[in-house]
Design goal:
Elements lengths: L1 H7 L11 E2 L15 E6 L5 E7 L7 H9 L15 E7 L3 E2 L5 H8 L4 E5 L21 H13 L5 E11 L1 H12 L3 E7 L5 H11 L18 H4 L7 E6 L7 H10 L5 E6 L10 H4 L1 H15 L1
Parallel strand pairs: 1-5, 4-6, 4-7, 7-8, 8-9, 9-10
Antiparallel strand pairs: 2-3, 3-6
Length: about 300
């Protein structure tokens, strides 16, 4: 198990607090012995978004995972464990890299009985090219891209459209939170490194990095796109996770949101010795416990 964890930990997500797309995939899921299918989605403004679908699947023995890792041209034939519609988790990326950094999350969830969908924002990974202002913290186009993915996922043959969950971290957590409130199809949300609003996130980052410029689209000044203002409208199951030493999205932000959320199922886990991202992220610092807890949350609420 320890060797398998080390292999999967090669896929540590990036974080930057500015939009930094990477158009080259470091790895594909087949390298980790995972069954997956690539598919494309068109947004309302006709932009092509690239996505990977992982059917729920059994865990391979460590020797088999190592075989695929060492023989990277080998791909397992696409198949599902059965024809039943399964609960499905949409994983939302942050503001940097691409969905190849999400393979570790997908591995842990698709081998625990869930279908998993990951996708690239426009301009990221294999999605259609797009130019960003590199000083931006977020783009309003992320919302359009995510909506297009939801519209497609609910119609996939092996997806139970009544059991859709979402997961995101940092920027991806915030966008997921907004869509969680607006889209009835998403029934449960787990997110890590959540924050209250972009104005407050910007002010916090300016305090940490006084010599950097941070901007965001004016759309996010609106109450409709402010997590702290829409929190009271949320009545669905939610699980917030944050590192105790996270200075980018500090625990007090998650606590503030949780006190406003009206759901009867709301959880907060402040992870000791963890910070915001990279090797200090909660999912790295407390790897096994992290995936046990979010898997339990989805099984109970989807």
């Amino acid at each position: 198990m320890k060797k398998l964890v080390l292999i999967i930990l090669l896929l540590i997500p990036l974080y930057s607090f500015s939009i930094k797309p990477d158009t080259v995939y470091s790895f594909y899921p087949n390298v980790y012995g995972l069954i997956f299918k690539e598919f494309r989605v068109k947004t309302y403004d006709n932009i092509i978004i690239n996505a990977w679908f992982y059917p729920a699947q059994d865990t391979l023995p460590l020797d088999s995972v190592k075989f695929y890792f060492e023989n990277r041209q080998m791909t397992r034939p696409f198949s599902s464990t059965d024809t039943l519609q399964k609960p499905t988790i949409i994983i939302c990326n942050g503001d940097a890299g691409n969905m190849s950094q999400l393979i570790g999350y997908a591995y842990q969830l698709c081998t625990r009985g869930f279908n998993v969908v990951t996708f690239d924002w426009r301009g990221f990974g294999g999605s259609q090219k797009w130019n960003y202002d590199k000083d931006l913290l977020v783009s309003e186009t992320f919302i359009s891209d995510y909506n297009a993915i939801i519209d497609t996922v609910i119609n996939l043959k092996t997806v139970n459209p009544h059991k859709i969950g979402a997961f995101g971290f940092s920027t991806g957590a915030y966008i997921s939170f907004l869509l969680f409130e607006k889209r009835i199809e998403i029934k449960a949300l787990a997110c890590r490194g959540m924050f209250t609003s972009y104005p407050e996130a910007r002010d916090n980052l300016k305090h940490i990095f006084p010599n950097r410029k941070f901007h965001y689209p004016t759309l996010f000044d609106s109450n409709d796109y402010s997590a702290k203002f829409i929190a009271s409208k949320i009545s669905k199951p939610i699980f917030l996770i944050v590192g105790r030493d996270d200075d980018r999205t500090p625990p007090k932000m998650s606590i503030e949101l949780l006190t406003s959320i009206n759901s009867s199922i709301r959880e907060l886990w402040i992870v000791d010795k963890a910070a915001h991202g990279g090797v200090e992220a909660p999912e790295v610092v407390d790897y096994i416990n992290f995936y046990n807890r979010i898997s339990r949350f989805y099984k109970e609420n989807l």
